[in-house]
Design brief:
Shape: elongated
Low-confidence stretches: 1-18
Helix content: 40-55%
Oligomer: single chain
Order of helices and strands: EEHEEEEHEHH
Mean pLDDT: 88
Structural class: alpha/beta
Length: 194
């Protein structure tokens, strides 16, 4: 359930102020089925999105591109426009069978909880984008009239923010997926309600 990462920079002219953007969010379902909680969970294990070599219940991925303008101001280079375009995709299981109660209620609780978990990853991504804006809008590098030095300096800052977001997501997953964690409890309630 880790967030995927794609960061690309695009250069365009124009003007934009910080934080005048909205993230686009979409759900990409994959189908699962089963007549019991265990069968549904096994279907998730067989059909869930792949992360590395393993399959996971759900996944939050994103694509981030930028409209960015570098301007020469005297002997310095300044980032005058830095507007993101962020698309977050939540890959979630969709149950195709129509279970009877009490399985229906257990499934509803499970999918609501898993969706909420993935939305936290989405929030982490949005916060990272806001941090990127904060460090880059108005960023100035002196003695850089051809705007060559500013780019590697910006990329270094973006790398730090990206690494921090990924670490935050990993830490969140570790708490949620460990024994007794929220997602672990959701799985247990779906599979073995007792």
């Amino acid at each position: 359930m880790r967030a995927a990462f794609l960061l690309a920079g695009l250069l365009f002219a124009g003007s934009a102020s910080a934080q005048d953007w909205q993230a686009a969010e979409r759900v990409e379902p994959y189908t699962v089925q089963g007549a019991t909680g265990l069968e549904i969970y096994q279907s998730i294990g067989a059909r869930g999105p792949k992360l590395g070599v393993a399959r996971v219940i759900a996944h939050t991925g994103f694509k981030l591109t930028w409209t960015r303008k570098y301007e020469r101001q005297g002997d310095a280079c300044v980032i005058t426009v830095n507007k993101p375009k962020l698309v977050i995709t939540y890959t979630l299981p969709k149950l195709t069978s129509k279970p009877a109660e009490p399985l229906k209620s257990r499934w509803d609780t499970f999918i609501t909880g898993v969706t909420a978990h993935e939305k936290v990853h989405g929030d982490f991504i949005k916060e990272m984008v806001k941090q990127i804006e904060a460090v880059s809008v108005g960023m100035t590098v002196e003695n850089d009239p051809n705007c060559k030095k500013i780019r590697p300096q910006l990329q270094a800052k973006l790398g730090e923010l990206s690494n921090a977001q990924r670490a935050r997501s990993r830490d969140f997953d570790q708490v949620e997926l460990n024994d007794g964690g929220n997602v672990h409890q959701l799985i247990l309630q779906l599979v073995d309600p007792r």
